[in-house]
Amino acid sequence: MNKAVIFDVDGTLLDGTEGIINSVKYTINEMKLPKISQAELISFIGPPVQNSAKDKFSLSEEEAQKFANIFRKKYADGNVFLANVYDGIYELLHFLKRKNYKLGVATYKREDYAINLMKHFEFDKYFDFICGADNENKLTKFDILVNCKNSLCTRDEKTIMIGDSYHDAQAAKKLNVDFIGVTYGFGFKTEKDINQYPNILCASKVNEILKYFQEQ
User: Fold this and answer.
1) Which CA distances in Å does 160 have to 7, 77, 211?
2) What is the pLDDT of residues 188-214, one digit of tens each?
3) Mean pLDDT over all residues of the chain?
4) Against a cut of 0.85, is the pTM above it?
5) pLDDT band at 2 (very low <50, low <70, confident <90, very high)
6) Alpha carbon 55 to chain centroid, angstroms
7) 192 to each of 21, 68, 171, 214, how far by Cα in Å?
8) b/e map of 41-80 (b: 16 or more CB within 10 Å)?
9) Burial class (CB in 10 A: 0-12, 13-18, 19+), 173
10) Which pLDDT band holds residue 137 (cuts at 50, 70, 90)?
């Protein structure tokens, strides 16, 4: 049976804090919205930006879409590349590729941004498919995960989703694929958080994920 591993991006492959927060701050200033705390700014990392904007500023659907459009223009203008690869990620991807795993990305980032980002960090040589969001964020994380899994493998092939948030965990559960949760990102903070969902591993470091696969 072939094996597939699907990764989230922000909080799993990359720490994109700087680029995302810079873009959120710029958008808040452009729309003349109230300033928010650093913790609230960090909460924008991961979920669809429209959803975060609606929650923080009580925006209408139209205003939230305007927020997203301004954010994305600024983000695409170079901030998207203000990110750091988590220690051990390249080693993990190299190992999985060498062991003939099929590799994919399922991210809430808009798909064209995600593809450019993967190329920038030379991840594209590892991943077979990169699946992201549409501009209006009509696709849920489940939809994106389904798109990625269907592109990678058949229904019967074993698949593992790796992510740092409940969005990833819930999508994996709904699709009935195995889940590895990480606490080094932005969503899950503790093993207890991850254990609210079915999982095969709780990892605080990337090398713990590598060790898991080495033992398979």
Assistant:
1) 9, 33, 15
2) 999 999 999 999 999 999 999 999 999
3) 94
4) yes
5) low
6) 20
7) 27, 32, 19, 25
8) bebbbbbbbbebbbebeebeeebbbbbbebbbebbeeebb
9) middle
10) confident
Structure tokens at 120: 């920038």
Contact 197, 169 (CB under 8 A): yes
Which residue type is seen at 188? Answer: F
- CA dihedral for 87, 196, 16, 124, sign (positive or negative): positive
What burial letters (b/e) apply to 11-22, b meaning 16+ CB within 10 Å?
Answer: bbbbbbbebbbb
What distance in Å separates the CA atoms of residue 117 and residue 72, rounded to the nearest whole number?
A: 14
Give CA–CA dist 17/186, Å, rounded: 9
57-66, 70-79, 131-140, 172-181 — which is least confidently predicted?
A: 131-140
Instruction: Name the one residue in this structure whose structure tokens are 């909080």.
Output: 11
Residue 21 has pLDDT above 60, yes or no: yes
CB 69 within 8 A of CB 137: no
Find, among 22, 27, 107, 17, the residue nearest to 71 by Cα. 27
Residue 90, classified by CB atoms within 10 Å of its CB into exposed (0-12), middle (13-18) or buried (19+), is middle
Q: In this predicted structure, what is the pLDDT of residue 135?
A: 78
